[in-house]
Specification:
By secondary structure, the protein is mostly helical. It has 2 domains: 12-85, Arc Repressor Mutant, subunit A; 91-129, no CATH class. The chain has 7 helices and 3 strands. It has helices at residues 13-21, 26-33, 40-46, 52-64, 86-89, 92-107, 117-127, and strands at 38-39, 68-73, 79-84. Strands 1-3-2 form a 3-stranded antiparallel beta sheet. A hairpin with a 5-residue loop joins strand 2 (68-73) and strand 3. The protein is globular. It starts with 12 loop residues before the first helix and ends with a helix. It comes from Pseudomonas fluvialis. Residues 110-129 are annotated as: Disordered. InterPro entries: HTH_HxlR, WH-like_DNA-bd_sf, WH_DNA-bd_sf. One of its GO terms (molecular function) is DNA binding. Residues 12-110 form the HTH hxlR-type domain.
């Protein structure tokens, strides 16, 4: 016998939260913006595999959702900074929990295409007593 499906009401808070942070790169961008301001190129280097168009799109969506603040400095060449808003900073405990769960998942044999063998090996070394 299977458990009955949980039916969530329209406008469910969990669904709304997941809609805002869903996407291949948004979680990583939020993680890299925790506690500091970053420039566009810094974020692109921190997310290997993301192209300029996708990074721009993801940052705009986070900005539209009120999670990221974008500051354009009127200099040549253009200088744009990104930082988390107060609402974005409220995700810090969520991101911390996801990081801990990710460590547990990877250490139990789970795999992710962006984790190299070296990263997985160093993860296992840090968890040994």
């Amino acid at each position: 016998m299977t458990a009955p499906a949980i039916i969530l009401p329209a406008g469910c808070p969990a669904e709304a939260a997941l809609d805002v942070i869903a996407g291949k790169w948004k979680g990583m961008l939020i993680f890299h913006l925790l506690g500091c301001t970053r420039r566009f190129n810094q974020l692109q280097r921190m997310c290997p595999g993301i192209n300029q168009r996708m990074l721009t799109k993801q940052l705009r969506e986070l900005e539209d959702a009120g999670l990221v603040l974008r500051t354009v400095h009127p200099v040549v060449p253009p200088h744009v900074d990104y930082q988390l808003s107060e609402l974005g900073l409220a995700l810090q405990p969520v991101m911390s929990s996801l990081q801990q769960w990710g460590k547990l998942y990877l250490s139990s044999g789970g795999r992710h295409g962006r984790c190299s063998e070296g990263q997985l090996h160093s993860l296992k070394e840090t968890e040994q007593p």
